[in-house]
Structures are given as structure tokens and as C-alpha cells.
Amino acid sequence: MNVYLLGYTGSMQRRGVSNTSLAIVAEGRTLLVDLSGSPVQALKEAEIDPATIVGVLLTHTHVDHIYALPSLLHQLWLGGRTEPLALIANGPTVAFAKRLIDLFDLERKKGFFPLIRHEIEEGDLEIGPLSLRLFPVIHGVPTSGLSVRHGGKHIVYLADTAYSRAWPSYIQGADILIHEVGGLSEEEETLAGKGHASARQAAQCALDVKAKRLILVHLPEDPKGDELLLKEAQALFPSTELPRLNIPY
Q1: Across the strands, what pairs with 23?
Q2: CATH 3.60.15.10: does it fit domain 2-241?
Q3: Which residue ranges make up each domain of the chain?
Q4: Per the CB 3.0–4.6 Å rule, which of 73, 124, 180, 234 could disulfide with 218?
Q5: SS3 180
Q6: 216: β partners
Q7: What is the pLDDT of residues 201-210, one digit of tens each?
Q8: Is 18 exposed, middle or buried (0-12, 13-18, 19+ CB in 10 A)?
Q9: What pLDDT score does 159 carry?
Q10: Which of 176, 179, 177 is nearest to 160 (CA)?
């Protein structure tokens, strides 16, 4: 199992980098997590065949995490997809995604492939070869964190969230923790009020859950601050990395 970052910015994009989204690949099957930019183009940049997608997991309804859903579905339909596609999210996000899909009448198109909706607030799901577990995180709208296991490897994604000491025990020992970062420790009060975390808090979370590696995502618009974020996180958790696009982790 490998995870690819198809984007890694927060709400504001950078030149050449879209909002945070992931592709998790195992045994030739792909799960997309959050959708931004041009998903099919991003997959091709990462040399991932869009035909291998078995599911889409959406963490919440904020624009930067969900806006590219209609584009992805339309592209897959144009490409001749007939295989059902799983759409996974918490209840409010499933409902919002349906409205977004209905806006373009996608499911009424001739020969449109079946969408299988899985509404999960907290619980398990097997998608293709992947074992998923969703759980709520701390944000301004209902938002899901994700634990993924396959073949002895464990990846955890903490999407938009404030820091917590009370994450569920099953995310312990992740090989890779992908954690959002909105700024530095001096901004923690403001960040927490918006449901976000600092670089220091992301590193503390990695320590708390005994992760092996930490990758910072959902970064602020200005890349000049990246090294400061990295330095702050590495002071607590040395195995912290800045994100890189389209490479297998």
C-alpha cells in the first residue's frame, strides 16, 4: 500500500499545487480521499490509472475538500466507466455530495455508472483490498479522520482538525501520519477556534499516537513559511517531512 499526495495546500492554492487530496493504492486499486483541482489530471501526473479507482472518501463539506467531485465523476463517465464506485463519508457530507452531483444531473446521464453510498460517522468498511476506519475529528462542520490498513501497513489521515489528546486507540502506531497544519504555535488559539492545528500540535499528535513518520499537509498559501513549520514540528518529532506531490509514500 502506498499513499500519494495529489495536493497539499489549505484553502488557498499555490502555483502548481492544489488543495489537499490523497490517492491510496494497493494491489492495483485506488481510493481517493478528498477531491481538489483536476483529479484525473492529478492521477495521470502520479502515473495512476483512473480506471483503478474503487472509491472516493470525502472528509467534510468545506469547498476545498469536495469541489472537484463532479469533475471526477464526469471524467470517469466520459472514459466509459461502468463499474460501481463507492462514495464514503459522514451523513452530512453524503447529503451535500448528492446535491453537488444532482446540480449537474450526473446520475441521469445515459449509461452513468452506479454510485454506492456508504454513510459512516464512525466505523469500519472494506473497500477493494483496503480496510478503512472512519472517526470524527474536531472542525467547524462534521469531519472524518481516516485509518487505512493493508498488508501490515497503517496510514492515518487527520484532515482539518484541532489538536486532541483523545484520538481513538486504533490509530496508534501508524506507519505514516498525514496531519493538517495551519500555522505555528504562536497562532494556536486562533487556529483552534477555526478547527485547525499548529505544526507543534501535529508533532505532538505524532508522539501521542506513536507514529513512525509525520507528513504535514493543508499548508498555508505562502511556501516561504514551510521551513519554519518543518523546524517547529521536527523539534518535537524529528521524523517529520514536508509534502511532495505524486510520489509513493
Answers
A1: 4, 32
A2: yes
A3: 2-241
A4: 180
A5: strand
A6: 179
A7: 999 999 999 9
A8: buried
A9: 86
A10: 179
